[in-house]
Amino acid sequence: MNIKIAPSILSADFSVMGETIKKLEQSGADLIHCDVMDGTFVEPITFGGQMVKNIRPLTSLPLDAHLMIEHPKTQIKFFADAGADIITVHYKACKKISDTYLEETLKMIKSYGVKCGAVVNPDVPVENIFPVFPLCDMVLLMSVYPGYGGQKFIPEVMDKIRKAREYAQFIGRPDMDIEIDGGVTLENAAAIRAAGANVLVAGSAVFNAPDMAGAIATLKK
Ligand code: DX5
Ligand code: ZN
């Protein structure tokens, strides 16, 4: 399984984002995780498609846009045009609109030629997104409640990782990307990988480390 580390720029200093992106690339990051928050689906507001547009020319790494927003359909075009490589949307934000909204949004993302993924919060059973697994390039399991970096990993999510990997195998997609987001540390990364996750988001673990490259290497191996 190809392990990928996706540092979250939520933990970065936004005033020097350009340099940070270059440093992440030199330090061995595999994706750049962009946490988009709207102040409604989650309390804070971070940034929108403009950030993705501005960092796009600075790196060849895939840009992973994690949309923690209500009405995600309204933003897909902006993020696709900005150059996102993958866009993930929350099950909860979609479900409250209609039973078909998640599927429709994933199809909309793909219609722009962008990879797509569904996200579940820690309290949502992974089974709820099994019906859309075949549509997804990646599934994202939140291991904290979204909104803030620096929270503690919720251990119950380990079991959901195993279930997601088993189901990916069951549908003939053993290499499907399963991403974990929240509270990933140098200490728990090995267990998270062993459970079956292969894309690890890391905010504080990368940005608070004295040696960014060393931290990314440890998260990977
Ligand atoms: C939380 C975000 C995460 C966060 C991870 O809502 O989706 O991507 O930045 O930060 P750490 O790794 O510090 O938990
Ligand atoms: Zn995230």
List the helices and strands and how they pair.
Blueprint: E1 4-7, H1 17-26, E2 32-37, H2 49-55, E3 63-68, H3 73-82, E4 86-90, H4 91-95, H5 101-111, E5 115-120, E6 138-142, H6 157-170, E7 177-181, H7 189-195, E8 199-202, H8 204-207, H9 212-220
Parallel strand pairs: 1-8, 2-3, 3-4, 4-5, 5-6, 6-7, 7-8
The structure holds D-xylitol-5-phosphate and zinc ion (ZN).
Zinc ion (ZN) is lined by residues 8, 33, 35, 66, 181, 201.
Write up what this structure looks like:
- This protein is an alpha/beta fold and 221 residues long.
- The protein is 35% helix and 19% strand.
- The chain has nine helices and eight strands.
- The chain has an eight-stranded parallel beta sheet.
- Helix 2 packs parallel to helix 3.
- The longest helix is centred in the last third of the chain and has 14 residues.
- The radius of gyration is 16 Å and the shape is globular.
- The N and C termini lie close together (12 Å).
- The structure holds D-xylitol-5-phosphate (DX5) and zinc ion.
